[in-house]
Amino acid sequence: MSDQELSQVKNITLDYLEKIGATLEEHDGLYTIEIPTNFEATFGGKQKRITFDSEVAETHSCELVIYGSNFLAIILDKIKQQAPVISGHLKTQGEFPIDVLDTIPVYRGTVNLEKSENMEKTVLRFY
After folding, report:
1. Structure pTM?
2. Where are the domains of the chain?
3. CB count, 10 Å around CB of 48?
């Protein structure tokens, strides 16, 4: 996982925990979290220990929060429940080559098209 992806996972996780009123204490990369009572069932307990560093996870036997981890999946699921999901895709009609378009104007911005056959496909949708 790249530093940027790790930073995104960390920011999403810590921001969400702060917004629900969890108490966070960090020491050398190990986060001890006091989960609010109304979220205990969601996270499976009152106290959790997490980290974003694999070495800390091995040393302290705590959950490593990365893409695919249970802790992050719970948070992303809760975020999805708070906002509508909007997605879309472009379809070609006939023989029209989609790659002739560089940008598509949209309300207050543009969409840039990029070829993605050889790109890493890690995706996070923000709500």
Report:
1. 0.64
2. 3-82
3. 18
Give the residue from 60, 20, 68, 67 showing the smallest Cα distance to 43: 20
Least confident of 60-64, 78-82, 104-108: 104-108
3-82 carries CATH number 3.30.70: no
Tokens at residue 7, please? 């930073």
Who contacts 25 (Cβ-Cβ below 8 Å, separation ≥6)?
A: 31, 32, 33
Q: Closest Cα to residue 47, out of 25, 18, 74? A: 25
For residue 123, give the amino acid letter.
Answer: V
CA distances 127 to 4, 5, 21, 105, Å, are 19, 17, 19, 22
**Beta-carbon count within 10 A of 9 CB:** 21
The three-state secondary structure class of 66 is coil
Q: How many residues does the chain have?
A: 127
